[in-house]
Amino acid sequence: METVRHMALGCCVISTVAGMIRIFWPENSFAPVINAVLALYIITAALQMVRGTDWQSLVTELYALTEEEPQGAISYESYGRQLGQDASAQAIRTVLNQAGIDAAVQIKDDTCQVTLLHPKDRDRAEAILKTSCGTLSYQIMAGGDAP
What we know:
By secondary structure, the chain is mostly helical. The protein is about 60% helix and about 10% strand.
């Protein structure tokens, strides 16, 4: 990491000096000479930075970074599973709405729980869920008492 810091510091110094020269000597008759000197300075500083870099150490550090397992790595399996369940619930909600069935749909403990607004829709909802749910288990909860 020290090598990377060394290179970054060199780039910062080069950029700072180039900016200061541009600020203190804006466009004037010496602009071509200043640009040539500035270019030579940048080339000299860059060569010094490259020459002073410990490339073997840099390569070793970069390889070590790729081999290390991040501490406290976050597992996205549960998040992906939750997204899948949400998508399934939304799809079932859409199918029921297209059939004219008002229902609340949620997935709990890997089971799709459908709460019907009208109890008379139970048979139609059961038929739709049988064909739409596939391997997802479902449960029709007692519906509301709406007519």
